[in-house]
Amino acid sequence: MKIYLVKRSFFTFRGQKSFELDLAGKSCLVRMRENLGAEVVDAPPAGEKLVLYPAYPFLTAVEVTAFLTAHTASVRFRGGFLERGTPFHEEDCLSEGLFSLADYPAMQTRALRESGVLHAGQGALVEEGARVDATVRLGRGVIVRRGACLTGGSVVGEDAVIAGDSIIEDSVIGAGTQVMSSRLTASKVGKRCKIGPYATLRPATEVGDDVRIGSFVECKNARIGDGTKIAHLAYVGDAELGARVNVGCGVVFVNFDGRRKARSYVGDGAFLGSNCNLVAPVKVGAGCFLAAGTTLTRDLADGDFCIGRSRESIKRRGAEKYLT
Q1: Same domain, 15 and 127
Q2: How far apart are CA 299 and CA 214, in angstroms?
Q3: Residues 297 and 265 placed together within one structural domain of the fold
Q4: Is the pLDDT at 87 greater than 80, yes or no?
Q5: N or C end of the chain: which has fewer CB within 10 A?
Q6: Does the structure show a pLDDT above 90 at 318?
Q7: Phi first, then psi: what are they for 265, rounded to 5°?
Q8: DSSP secondary structure string, 54-114?
Q9: Are residues 135 and 54 in the same domain?
Q10: What total number of domains does the chain contain?
């Protein structure tokens, strides 16, 4: 018998219809279409048919077959109707569904639990209290700790660890990488990296292998080469860093002049000391040393040393003027 799905919403929440609400990465409508192979229509055609409203996200084909076998006459129920050419009667059946906002938390919990079981069957561990959508792919040996959230089309390589309230959205993480309490959006991270805690990787960030991105580092539209270390408190925006670059604490890639964004380039093995500003567009050659506190506005050739800070002016015992 032909099964049809008709888009009927039983409630709305914050502008979303009930059948559009997220259930571990898939809406109720999508889940029913996939589970049952049902056709989505605005109005079903005449004839014998089973019409369902998108309120049963976990209904299986086996359950539908049992339902059709048990009912030989036309029946209406809360979530649809079965038409067999006989007079309709009302019946309460297929009762577990998404009919009100009060049903939603239980549906979401079940969806996440089933997602966790699915990933466990593929060799990954999703701890209770973590959220991993069914659309996410986890490699064998992956551990997703309690509080972490992975959504969209994210992919995590083998033996990676995602922990500490991390949020991973539509990102790719390489094998053996550790992400701690950080947020990644539309980014790519290589193998054996350490990200966080409290790092932010914004869209179009690409990180190589064996990279360290530490606490309170933000990267945006940046390419970061293998073995580079950005330990803490830095902003890397619209920049391309080579391999084995050291980015000190407080380094800022100054990418916006108030009208347009510009890009910076740093060569392999360069050392950027703490509290440096790189005013884009600027190029730093391979093996350069940028001394702490420098504001760089000119290009550096390979191997250059640059220091750009004012000399200290010291007045002996002058502090008494300000402290007394």
Answers
A1: no
A2: 27
A3: yes
A4: yes
A5: C
A6: no
A7: -130, 135
A8: S--TT--HHHHHHHHHH--S-EEETTEEEE-SS--EE---S--S--SGGGHHHHHHHHHHH
A9: no
A10: 2
Domain range holding 158? 123-306
Of 218, 221, 189, 190, which Cα lies nearest the Cα of 203?
221
Does 58 lie in the same domain as 138? no
Which of 34-48, 101-115, 270-284, 305-319 comes out lowest in average pLDDT? 305-319
Contact 273, 293 (CB under 8 A): yes
Give the largest Cα separation in the chain, rounded. Answer: 103
pLDDT of residue 133: 96
Residue 74 belongs to some domain of the structure: yes
Asked whether residue 93 carries a pLDDT value surpassing 80, the answer given is no
Query: What's the pLDDT at 125?
Result: 97
- Is the residue at 138 inside a domain? yes
What angle do the packed helices 28-36 and 61-70 form, to 10 degrees? 70
Mean pLDDT of 229-234: 97
- Tell me the CA distances in angstroms from 148 to 132, 288, 320, one per residue in order: 8, 39, 52
pLDDT tens digits for 256-297?
Answer: 999 999 999 999 999 999 999 999 999 999 999 999 999 999
**Shared domain check, 98 and 127:** no
Nearest CA-CA partner of 23 in 90, 89, 115: 115
Does residue 14 lie in a domain region?
Answer: yes
User: Which runs of consecutive H residues, i.e. helices, occur in the chain?
Assistant: 28-36, 61-70, 104-121, 320-323
Residue 206's CATH number: 2.160.10.10
Among candidate residues 71, 89, 119, 232, the one labeled active-site is 232
If asked whether residues 90 and 202 sit together in one domain, one would say: no
Residue 316 lies in a domain: no
Confidence of residue 310 (pLDDT cuts 50, 70, 90): confident
CA dist list (Å): 110 to 97, 103, 136, 259, 301: 12, 11, 17, 49, 59
Q: Is there a catalytic annotation at residue 89? A: no
Q: Quick one: 230 and 286 in the same domain?
A: yes
Question: Does one domain contain both 84 and 178?
Answer: no
